[in-house]
Amino acid sequence: MSTTGVRLAPQRLRWAVADTVTLTGRALAHWRRQPGQFVVGLLFPVLMVLMFGYLFGGAMSVPGGGDYREFLLPGMFAMTMLFGIESTYTAVATDTARGVTDRFRSLPMTPSVVLTGRAAADLLHCAAALAVMLACGVAVGWQWRAGAPAALTAVGLLLLLRFALIWVGIHLALVLRAPGSVVVLQILVWPVGFTSNAFVSPDTMPGWLAAVAGYNPLSATVAACRELFGNPGWGGESFAAQHAVALAVAWPLLLTAVFGPLAVRRYRRLGR
């Protein structure tokens, strides 16, 4: 690399960071102008906790015993990370359909910062949703029992999963483009969520479905969080159960490594 290139590299990095911060602020400004949508996104998982914890919880049994709401809450934390993919998809698809993305592409900025700005904003939104869910969990009697360091590690794994799912949502939005096609994503999100260990143990499922649920990326994060929070329902003899924390790191890293570059490539090819 030439001396000039070495000197320009830090400057390019500073501009990329500055552009990312600006585009993150743009997304946050949209939420300030439309607080209703933001609040609904925060409260919907709370409604799910109340529905499953109190309406159906009495009929649920936890493998090895224990309170069902403590079993449920780590699953709902992960489901909150999954539900956010729809808002990511809608925002990116709307910008693409309205020509906003084309205007960004005409500006002198690194193409990837448009996507990283969106990813950063959505990660902040999901961090707020997770904070609400943690408070909701404490309110209904959930506790973390394995100490603060383990609990913080679990929170980090949840946000890592969310970061990976953001790139999945961005890529799909750039492929399908139309905001109305979010229905397609919803059709995919719900089966992924319910064919996991978020609500019931895979041991209660038929053999083939238990295998699918055990290696679901969502299940890895849920099982790891149950272990790190010290909640009931974690453990088992399968490879996925014995290595839940490792898989909770590996799955998001793999999804990010696949869909991150695909999203950037798709963004660069828009209009061609």
From TrEMBL:
Annotated membrane topology is: Multi-pass membrane protein
Q: Does the keyword Cell membrane apply?
A: yes
For this protein, the record's PROSITE patterns field holds: ABC_TM2 (PS51012)
Query: Does this UniProt record's set of keywords contain Glycoprotein?
Result: no
Recorded coiled-coil stretches: none
Where does it primarily localize? Answer: membrane
Q: Keywords for this entry?
A: Antibiotic resistance, Cell membrane, Membrane, Transmembrane, Transmembrane helix, Transport
The record ties this protein, via Pfam families, to:
ABC2_membrane
Q: Which subcellular locations apply to this protein?
A: Cell membrane; Membrane
Q: Which InterPro entries match?
A: ABC2_TM, ABC2_TM_bact-type, ABC_2_transport, Nod_factor_ABC_transporter
Q: To which protein family does this belong? A: Belongs to the ABC-2 integral membrane protein family.
Please give the name of this protein.
Transport permease protein
Q: Which organism is it from?
A: Micromonospora reichwaldensis
